[in-house]
Amino acid sequence: MSARESWTQHQARRRERAETAPSGALARTEPMNALHRCDRCGAQAYVRVLLLNGQDLLFCAHHYRQHASALARVALAVQDETQRLARGGWPAPRG
């Protein structure tokens, strides 16, 4: 078996598992807030990665960018809210 065939079979199994995942597996996509903390460093999480086994990992923007390529290979779904960081809608300082 060539490496290409192995990769193709892996991708097919991954799609098959995603299609047969419990219907509630992707339901945990409520907006994240300040209580959601990065599993790596404890900063506020802006990315939730749902794994094939139904568990999820939370990451700050920095650690998600650092590990994005590896996570893409094992993720069933990714909830990325990093756009909230660049929104610019911070409250004005009180004076």
What characteristics describe this protein?
single chain; alpha+beta; 3-stranded antiparallel β-sheet; 95 residues
Detailed description of the structure:
This protein has a 3-stranded antiparallel sheet with strand order 2-1-3, covered by helices on one side. The N and C termini lie far apart (69 Å). β1 (47-51) and β2 (56-59) form a beta hairpin. With 95 residues, the chain is of the alpha+beta class. The protein has helices at residues 3-19, 61-74, and strands spanning 47-51, 56-59, 75-80. The longest helix is centred in the first third of the chain and has 17 residues, at 3-19. It is built from 2 helices and 3 strands; from the N terminus they run αββαβ. Residues 23-27 have low confidence and may be disordered. It has a domain at 31-83. It is elongated.
How would you sum up the major sheet? 3 strands, antiparallel
Strand element count: 3
Structural class category: alpha+beta
Mean pLDDT: 79
Query: What coarse outline follows from CA principal-axis ratios?
Result: elongated
| Gap between N and C termini | 69 Å
Low-confidence stretches are 23-27
Approximate helicity band: 25-40%
Order of helices and strands: HEEHE
Strand order of the largest sheet: 2-1-3
Q: How much β-strand is present in the residues?
A: 15-25%
Number of helices: 2
CA radius of gyration: 17 Å
Give me a quick take on this structure:
With 95 residues, the chain is an alpha+beta fold.
